[in-house]
Design brief:
Blueprint: E1 7-11, H1 18-26, E2 33-35, E3 39-40, E4 55-56, H2 59-67, E5 71-78, E6 81-86, H3 87-95, E7 99-104, H4 106-115, E8 120-126, H5 130-140, H6 145-159, E9 167-170, H7 174-189, H8 194-197
Parallel strand pairs: 1-7, 1-8, 2-7, 3-4, 8-9
Antiparallel strand pairs: 3-6, 5-6
Length: 202
């Protein structure tokens, strides 16, 4: 697989706020980012759209892609619940001259970092606490208590992987976390973040 632009990975336990950070960064034109849409074998939730939020696949289809070595990384996150990054997705975005940003599972993020160590900035988003994480997941009202408890158990394991990432953002204050993420990515890509242009010189 040939390389193109930079790869920017945001990983975190579910409910840490990484999706909000990624959405914010995609709105910053100077970063020249495009979102890598993951494939999944799970069913759609709420207003999720095919090709925008995920590439939704049948379990058999997903497994066929694994056999064909079509994934850059994949993971069985829960039983028969697969997520993965298609090589074709990243190649498509690189061909458009974009830097690719990922909102991805911790294990998947580390796998991509291992495959492309020189092209990748891997950022771990840390929640204030496990208790706060549980509150955020309950507020979503998209999953059963059993599923939330599974996510919380997984989060404890995922938090231990934070030192394996290039950078860690503590999402205690969202505004601060967004600013920090913007600065990190801008530094990595080698551009001046737009918020700096409007600040008065001291």
């Amino acid at each position: 697989m040939s390389t193109g632009g930079k790869l920017i990975i945001f990983s975190a336990p579910s409910g840490s706020g990484k999706t909000t950070i990624v959405r914010y960064l995609l709105e910053q034109p100077e970063l020249n980012l495009a979102f890598s849409v993951s494939a999944t074998s799970r069913s759609r939730r709420g207003k999720e759209k095919q090709g925008e939020h995920y590439y939704f696949m049948k379990l058999s289809e997903f497994k066929q892609h694994i056999k064909n070595d079509d994934f850059l990384e994949w993971e069985e996150v829960y039983r028969d619940n697969f997520y993965g990054t298609l090589k074709s997705e990243v190649e498509r975005l690189w061909a458009e001259g974009k830097n690719v940003i990922f909102d991805i599972d911790v294990a998947g993020g580390l796998r991509i970092k291992k495959k492309f160590p020189k092209e990748t900035l891997a950022v771990f988003v840390k929640p204030p606490s496990i208790d706060e994480l549980k509150i955020r997941l309950k507020k979503r009202s998209t999953e059963s208590d059993e599923k939330i408890n599974m996510r919380i158990a997984k989060a404890s394991v995922e938090l231990a992987t934070a030192p394996q990432f290039d950078k860690v953002i503590k999402n205690y204050d969202l505004e601060k976390a967004l600013h920090e993420a913007h600065q990190m990515v801008a530094d990595y890509i080698g551009v001046v973040p737009s918020f700096k242009k409007n600040e008065p010189k001291s």
